[in-house]
Amino acid sequence: MPELPEVEVVKKSLEVKLKNLVIKRVFINNNKLRYKINNKDFSKVKDLKIISIIRRSKYLLINLRQNLTILAHLGMTGKFFIFNKKKKYKTSFYYSLKKNDSKHDHITFFLNKGFKLIYNDVRKFGFIKLFKTQNIYECSHLRFLGPEPLTEDFNVSYVNNYLLNKKKTIKDLLMNQKFVAGLGNIYCNEILFLCKIRPTRIAKKVNKQELYKIVRFTKKILKKSIFLGGSSIKDFVSTDGQNGNFQQKFNVYNREKRRCKTINCPCTIRKLYMSGRSSFFCPRCQK
Could you give the residue numbers annotated as active site? Predict the structure, then answer.
């Protein structure tokens, strides 16, 4: 599942290509995604201009005129393709191109200037909904999200207050979208490695110095991943069709039985399962 950096790069790509274009019509080929697409709702977007595209956590918000916002979540395999006069545009971040891609096209937005925006999803775990812009942050998907990790709201004081007396593991809390929005399994593993904290550590046992590290390295890793085009796990590729570069920088994720990258550390990375997810850590570096 794409995490914050991947969705941020998709957002940037869409905004560059689509901002100020007008939706001329919408064609729904298959409305059976995670939530059924409401055909009647999407008839309302005809002739509306795209005024901005923003990201909140792992969600994309396409803001339109007339106080309407399209909310999209990519799920496991959701992706947007952009076409212009039968040419598939290479955005700064999208999935690999395959000959049979079109059979998984579920909704097409026909725009002016010959553009088309297509939502494609093999496993159909993503979704697209339409909301009144003024109510968008009160919807069930966004209402209870924690602060964005790259903002000043995600700070040591906030983290300290949230973790106080919590008996859950620090990994589970970092994965909790109510605590901090947008983090997923990949980045939580990498953050905890740099903080030298084992994923199984109980949250209330994290000390003040380690809290500073959590905030610092969360921001550092996310910024670096966005800069490098996002992680490329299975499907994602970058602007010119090459894999995203951040996966080449992984310290622990998916590196089970491989040598720890810490200088002079003789240990190999271990793997365990927590809450149904794979966790990777160095038994010597992380305590």
Answer: 2-3, 58, 277
Kindly list the distances between the CA atom of residue 284 and the CA atoms of 145, 210, 258, 264, in Å, as whole numbers in the listed order.
34, 17, 14, 11
DSSP 8-state secondary structure symbol assigned to residue 254? T
State pLDDT tens for residues 189-225: 999 999 999 999 999 999 999 999 999 999 999 999 8
Query: pLDDT tens digits for 118-155?
Result: 999 989 999 999 999 999 999 999 999 999 999 999 99
- Residues facing 69 on adjacent strands: 63, 131
Helix (H) / strand (E) element for 62: namely strand 59-64
- Which pair of structure tokens corresponds to residue 21? 């274009």
My answer on whether 64 and 177 are in the same domain is no
CATH of the domain at 32: 3.20.190.10
CA distance 218 to 194: 9
Q: Per the domain annotation, does 154 fall within a domain?
A: no
Q: How far is CA 71 from CA 4, 56, 261, in A?
A: 15, 10, 40
Whether 105 and 186 share a structural domain: no
Residues facing residue 93 across a β-bridge = 238
Question: Based on the structure, what is the number of domains in the chain?
Answer: 2
For residue 214, the model assigns a pLDDT of: 98
CA distance 130 to 38: 8
Nearest to 72 by CA among 57, 62, 83, 82: 62
Distance CA 17, CA 5 (A): 19
**Is residue 132 one of the residues assigned to a domain?**
yes
Cα 131 from Cα 277, distance rounded (Å) = 32
pTM for the complete prediction?
A: 0.90
Q: Report in angstroms the alpha-carbon separations of 269 from 77, 111, 137, 251.
A: 28, 49, 40, 9
Which secondary-structure segment (H or E) carries 59?
strand 59-64
- 131 and 234 share a domain? no
